[in-house]
Specification:
By secondary structure, the protein is of the alpha/beta class. The protein has 3 domains: 253 residues, 2-enoyl-CoA Hydratase, Chain A, domain 1, CATH 3.90.226.10; 179 residues, NAD(P)-binding Rossmann-like Domain (Rossmann fold); 144 residues, N-(1-d-carboxylethyl)-l-norvaline Dehydrogenase, domain 2. 46% of the residues lie in helices and 12% in strands. It is built from 26 helices and 19 strands. The strands form 4 sheets. An 8-stranded mixed beta sheet has the order 12-11-10-13-14-15-16-17, sandwiched between helices. A 6-stranded mixed beta sheet has the order 1-2-3-4-6-9, with helices on both faces. A hairpin with an 8-residue loop joins strand 15 and strand 16. Helix 5 packs parallel to helix 8, helix 13 runs antiparallel to helix 14 and helix 19 packs across helix 24. The longest helix has 21 residues. The relative contact order is 0.07. The mean pLDDT is 94.
Length: 650
């Protein structure tokens, strides 16, 4: 039985126990209805505490039911039954109270949580909106700005912020259940959330400005727009009418293509770490991490590890580089402090667990070491030769290479089985994707430890085989080539970029090149020159920009000008492109935005198919996860391989 009722004096304790995350599936809904009937009919019970077994409160609805017809009792009806109970219900929250879980908690008459609780309505990230009263109850508990942010962006609140906002009535610093039972005794009568007035925007103009920002960021995604309308309904209409309209909108979105695409990504991200070869392999525990290199990437990796509760030691070439690396990590952690992601005590603790030095010997006790130095095979091999001597034999040695052969790097060690690739994406402490690059020499134990480590950091790990660029950068190189062909054939860089952002990408390929630095792509092309197929079409425009010293944002000029700080089309670049087309005898023809994006999408899909055929990726879904999390392929489109498989048009 997934819902049970026990008594503690005159308080009933209703416990949901439905592993792994107590999702509100059909059996849970039935159990809650039964619990209401039982507690309502028992005159000895004065109040009810709702709590969950396991690691969290209810972490959402059962997403597996989304593709099935709704079955009674429906969640909105269950919540109304709880809310209209004659006896007060107190939600005792630990861990995650998300989506339907938070809607359930808001239908209770008061809420208490422990310090580690996280409360949110992430439905927009699945292409839907709250469908059981979330958009109607939340604005009766919190201010308008908080309600808008939670409902239209899906961002959660921690316990302290939820208490300050009014979403929680108390935070437990001790044992949650006794504190919840004590709280239950203080409520003289049940006060339904729906009977409370909404907390209207204090500054309507500022509220509208926040809405405009969210709508602009949403682009072609439908759910945030519908969520905002549902929230406005809560402010403007009777609660019962707003509830009905919310449910209708939820059901409509749930059966729409965008929600199906986002469910695909949702499940795909949760399956990437399920690797058959390590199914029964116990990973090494990782508590101490070494990082070699304190540049932007190394510092980001170090910060990611620290924020995950790991001890970190960084090695740099000299004292000056050590100080620069330490300062980068310090500044990253300080940003997290200022944003409220960590408190002062945590900030101070993290700095105490971070050390820097110039000798590899300080890595002797590290469980895992990540090399993040210059992208040069000789340099990386020198580092690994030193690591091989300095680290203990059971330590995992990882390279953060973006393109190079991990097996070649491993070849300089006495035990290549402990070497693996961990390709982070910048900024490493923020970006969720982590390509786990597995050469033939890596042992199952090394792979299992790498996957476990990735999850410890809160990353989405995707296994990749050995090839130039692995999955993400190989596909990016393919569609960048196609974009370069198009600017020779008749488009301009800003036309290509606009087609990409209109499609839903956060940034066009040429703006991205300028941001990274055109010297980076130039160095990659130089490295590939000796192995490039002489029959392959080659575009010289990027090389000519490099020769002119136009390296992108850092020099104020690249494919764009940056006189005002923003990318601006440059007549000089247009003239250079026109001259190149003329030199090659190409008769330029205008390319419309749909054709531009169709060619880019086709390039992604063709390269994805090659990657699958070569066994570089485990599945097409893994490729979709990579493209969504590495380069911002719109989640609501499901990924390039998803679109190919379902023959989805632009």
């Amino acid at each position: 039985m997934c819902v049970s009722v026990s008594t503690h004096g005159n308080t009933a304790v209703v416990t949901i126990d439905y592993p792994p995350v107590n999702a509100i599936g059909l059996e849970v809904r039935k159990g809650l209805i039964d619990a209401v009937e039982r507690t309502e009919s028992d005159p000895s019970i004065n109040a009810v505490v709702l709590i969950c077994a396991g690691k969290s409160f209810v972490a959402g609805a059962d997403v597996r039911e989304f593709d099935k017809p709704p079955v009674e009792p429906h969640l909105p009806d269950v919540l109304l039954r709880i809310e209209n109970s004659t006896k007060p219900w107190i939600a005792a929250i630990h861990g995650a109270a998300l989506g339907g879980g938070l809607e359930l908690a808001m239908a209770c008459h008061q809420r208490i949580a422990n310090q580690s609780a996280k409360l949110g309505l992430p439905e927009v990230t699945l292409g839907v909106i709250p469908g059981a009263g979330g958009t109607v109850r939340l604005p009766r508990l919190v201010d308008a700005a908080t309600a808008l942010n939670m409902i239209a962006t899906g961002k959660p609140l921690n316990a302290q912020r939820a208490l300050e906002a009014g979403l929680l009535d108390a935070v437990s610093n001790n044992d949650l259940l006794p504190d919840a039972i004590a709280l239950a005794q203080t409520i003289p009568a049940a006060l339904a959330t729906l009977k409370k007035p909404t907390k209207l925007p204090a500054d309507p103009q500022r509220f509208q400005s926040a809405i405009d920002t969210i709508l602009k960021k949403a682009g072609g995604q439908t759910a945030p727009k519908v969520a905002i309308q549902a929230l406005n309904n809560a402010y403007q209409l009777d609660a019962i009418i707003a509830l009905r309209l919310e449910r209708e909108a939820f059901l409509s979105l749930r059966s729409a293509p965008q929600a199906a695409a986002m469910r695909h990504i949702f499940f795909a991200e949760r399956s990437t770490a399920k690797v058959e070869r390590v199914k029964h392999i116990a990973p090494n525990p990782v508590k101490t991490v070494g990082v070699v290199g304190g540049g932007t990437m190394g510092a980001g990796i170090a910060a990611a590890c620290l924020l995950a509760g790991l001890e970190v030691t960084m090695v740099e070439r000299d004292e000056s580089a050590c100080k620069a690396g330490y300062d980068r990590v310090h500044n990253t952690l300080e940003t997290s402090l200022k944003r409220g992601l960590i408190d002062q005590l945590t900030f101070d603790k993290l700095l105490r667990t971070f050390g820097v030095g110039t000798q590899y010997s300080i890595l002797a006790k590290a469980d895992l070491v990540i090399e993040a130095v210059f992208e040069d095979l000789d340099v990386k091999q020198q580092v690994f030769a030193q690591l091989d001597k300095a680290t203990h034999p059971a330590a995992i040695l990882a390279t953060n290479t973006s393109y190079l052969d991990v097996a070649a790097i491993a070849s300089v060690t006495t035990d290549p089985t402990r070497v693996i690739g961990l390709h982070f994406f910048s900024p490493a402490h923020i970006m969720k994707l982590l390509e786990v690059v597995v050469p033939d020499c890596s042992s199952d134990h090394t792979v299992a430890t790498a996957l476990s480590f990735a999850r410890k950091l809160g990353k989405v790990p995707v296994l990749a085989g050995i090839c130039d660029g692995f999955i993400a950068n190989r596909i990016m190189s393919a569609y960048r080539r196609e974009a370069e062909y198009m600017i020779e054939d008749g488009a301009m860089p800003w036309e290509v970029d606009k087609a990409m952002t209109d499609f839903g990408m956060p940034m066009g390929i040429f703006q991205m090149g300028d941001l990274a630095g055109l010297d980076i792509s130039w160095a990659m092309r130089k490295r590939q020159a000796t192995t490039r197929d002489p029959n392959q079409r080659y575009v010289d425009i990027g090389d000519k920009l490099y020769a002119l010293g136009r390296l992108g944002r850092k020099t104020g000029k690249g494919y764009y000008r940056y006189d005002t700080g923003k990318p601006t089309p440059d007549p000089d670049v247009e003239a250079l492109i026109m001259a190149e087309s003329h030199r090659k005898g190409i008769i330029r023809q205008a390319i419309d935005p749909d054709t531009i994006m169709a060619r880019i999408l086709s390039a992604m899909q063709r390269e994805g198919q090659k990657i699958l055929k070569e066994g570089i990726a485990q599945s097409a879904a893994d490729i979709d996860v990579v493209m969504v999390n590495a380069y911002g392929f719109p989640r609501w489109r499901g990924g390039p391989m998803y679109m190919l498989d379902r023959e989805v048009s632009l």
